[in-house]
Amino acid sequence: MPVEDEVRAVSAAFDAALLHNDADAIGQFMTDDWVYVGPSGATPRSDILGWIASGRLAHHTMTVIGDERLARVGDAVVYTARKASTGSWDGTPYTAEEWITELYVHVNGRWRCAFSQKTDAT
Fold first, then answer.
1. Distance between CA 113 and CA 33 in Å, rounded?
2. In angstroms, rounded to a whole number, what is the distance separating the alpha carbons of residues 43 and 37?
3. In which band, very low, low, confident or very high, does the pLDDT at 1 lie, cut at 50, 70 and 90?
4. What is the distance between the alpha carbons of residues 48 and 115, in angstroms, rounded to a whole number?
5. 31 has which bridge partners?
6. Hey, which bits of the chain come out as E strands?
7. What's the pLDDT score for residue 103?
8. I need a labelling partner for 108 at 20 to 30 A (CA). Which of 52, 75, 89, 94 fits?
9. What is the Cβ-side half-sphere exposure of residue 50, based on CA atoms within 13 angstroms?
């Protein structure tokens, strides 16, 4: 299987774990130093996983809109896609449509996400 297809499958499994809101399972898809960058800046792995574990952040749906783009760069793969999602933050429902870019690296025989960045799609 081509590396790009492997990463596409890992990204889909990562999304599925997010929808189950299981912080331990989600953490298995991230490197230890994973970081999320959004409109308010960088958020570390521990914060995101803590919010999910506490129920403060919950994901309900996540759908890829259109084509995904994967680019292999040395031993890493950059994944970009437009996604629509729903969930809740502090009990308040949200709906989002965003561009997401993720950097996947091969660690101990498996692909893991090292970086995620989201930009609102307008």
1. 10
2. 6
3. confident
4. 13
5. none
6. 30-38, 41-44, 57-73, 76-89, 92-107, 110-120
7. 98
8. 52
9. 5
- The residue with tokens 């492997």 is 6
Q: Which two tokens stand for residue 24?
A: 């331990």
Q: Whole-angstrom Cα distance, residue 23 to residue 11?
A: 16
Would you state the structure tokens that stand for residue 58, as one six-digit string?
């919950």
Tens-place pLDDT, residues 17-74: 999 999 999 999 999 999 999 989 999 999 999 999 999 999 999 999 989 999 999 9
Find the mean pLDDT for residues 84-106: 97
For domain 3-120, give the CATH number.
3.10.450.50
Query: CA-to-CA distance for 81 and 96, rounded, in angstroms?
Result: 14
Distance CA 25, CA 20 (A): 9
What's the pTM? 0.93
